[in-house]
Amino acid sequence: MLKTDKQTQNKRKDGKFAKGNTLGNRWKKGESGNPNGRRNAAKDILNKLLDSEMDDRSQREALLSKLLQMGMRGDLGAIKEVLDRTEGKSKEHIITEEFKPMQVLEFDDNILDEK
């Protein structure tokens, strides 16, 4: 890879790059270098496959039907998944020891003046 003039301009004598960008910015202030964000290609491909038709219903419906069948047969993982998706994940409640309020002593000015 050949170095451009801009790359060599920002180098110090010891071979390291100088701190900061003195050559100007690639993007204007507030402008992103990646405006569309990172694409999730695997998710896009999977959604495309799941939306395709198979035997008059989508792959997604077939997959959910299979998951439901597995749950009906007693597969605990499938049961948990179906319930988490339909009822929402259950929240874990942790009960701790109850702490009683601590008595705070009040000092008035007379006690402080005596010392």
Q: Top keywords for this entry?
A:
single chain; 5 helices; mainly alpha; 115 residues; 2 strands
Describe the overall structure.
The protein is mainly alpha-helical and 115 residues long. The chain has a domain at 59-87. It is built from 5 helices and 2 strands, in the order ααββααα. Strand 1 and strand 2 (57-58) form a beta hairpin. Helix 3 (59-72) packs across helix 4 (76-87).
State the low-pLDDT regions, or none. Answer: none
- Strand ordering within the main sheet: 1-2
Kindly state the mean pLDDT as a whole number?
79
Strand content: under 5%
Rounded radius of gyration (Å): 33 Å
What's the structural blueprint in terms of helices and strands?
Elements: H1 5-9, H2 41-51, E1 53-54, E2 57-58, H3 59-72, H4 76-87, H5 109-114
Antiparallel strand pairs: 1-2
Brief synopsis:
The protein has 115 residues and is mostly helical. The chain has five helices and two strands, in the order ααββααα.
